[in-house]
Amino acid sequence: MSPLAALLSPAHLLAANGLVLPHVNYTAIMPELILLGGMLLLLGISAVSPRHLPTQVYATATAGIGIASLIASLVLWHDVQKGGPFSAVARAVDIDGFATLVLVLCSCVVILGAFFAAGFLEREQVQGVEYYALALISASGAMLMGSANDLILVFLGLEILSIPLYVMAGLDQRRAASGEAAMKYFLLGAFSSAVFVYGIALTYGATGSTNLASIGSFLAQNVVVSNGVLLGGLALLLVGFGFKVAAVPFHMWTPDVYAGSPTPAVGFMAAVAKIGAFGALLRVLFSTFPTLRTSWQPILWALAILTLLLGALVAVVQRDVKRMLAYSSINHAGFILLGVQAGTSRGAEASLYYLFVYSVLVLGTFGVVAVVGGRGDEGHGIERYRGLAHRRPLLAGSMAVLLLAQAGAPFTTGFFSKLYVIEASIAAHSYALATVAMLSAAIATFFYLRLVFAMFGERAGRQASVAVPVAPAGAGAPGGAAGQFPPVGTLPAGPAVASAAGVLTLERAAGLVDPGRAEAAAVADDDAGPVVADADLQVSPWVWVGLALCVGTTVVLGIWPSPLVDFARHATLLF
Amino acid sequence: MSVHASWYLVLAAVLFSIGAVGLLVRRNVLVMFMCIELMLNAANLTFVTFSRALNDIGGQVAVFFVLVVAAAEVVVGLGIIVAIYRRRVGATADDAHILKG
Amino acid sequence: MGSLDSYLPILFLFVLAFGFTAFSLAASKLLAPQRPTAAKEAPYECGIVPSHEPPQRFPVRFYLVSMIFVIFDIEVIFLFPWAVVYGQLGRFGLVEIIVFAAAVFFSFVYLVSNGALDWGPLKRVQRVVRPIGGRTSQSTVRRIGSSSDEAA
Question: What's the ipTM?
Answer without folding.
Answer: 0.90
